[in-house]
Amino acid sequence: LGGWTNLVWFAHPIFVDGDYPVLLKAQIEQKRKACPLSEPARLPVFTGDERRRIHGTADFFGLNDYASRLVSNSVGGCTTAPWGLRRLLHFILAEYLDISKAWANQAAARVDVRGYTVWSLMGNFEWAAGYAERFGLFYVNCSDYTLARIPKASAAPLGPHECLNPQPEGTPAPPLAVVDRGVFLGLELLSGVAEVALYIIALALGIVVAPIFGAYRLVKRQLKRKAAVSLNMQRM
Length: 236
Description:
This protein is mainly alpha-helical. Helices cover 42% and strands 6% of the residues.
């Protein structure tokens, strides 16, 4: 069924009328009749309340587009039609975003695209094609041991970003944050950490020393009591 099915499968219920398009239902039914022995393909049947609840449940239209291909008798590959994304956006604009189809050509140049992410930054390992298919914003020269990255024309509209611009000569370095450190038991620690460690050690000492001190006072009191009893007996 292809990419069209993937698009209308979700977009049509949400943006149009809460239900699947008639053509998609017909295609699913055709597939079911063509393969009667296989597990039947089904689409959920929505009630009126479900359709009303589904319709309009999106705040924006997010599109994940890989490629638009020209159908021809040729070998496969990553060669695509550059204008495919533009036509796809026109279709989405006219079909789902509350703009009359008759206005599609006039509104086509004003598709409200808020942002996009490009794939990929540089040549990558592309599934079964491996490194044979070379695409990306930067060409990687694999013949050079440095693997030099060479920007393509497609990289120009996306940069350079201001964060990549070198600072002019004489620009003062930003001030470094002052970190308050101290030495505690031979270790260099942040002041806050050293203070917490001191509290913990003091608490531990208190837990250990308190019972010892209490036992010492108890023994001392018992010894005094025995000494007083012995003195009284001698006087008698």
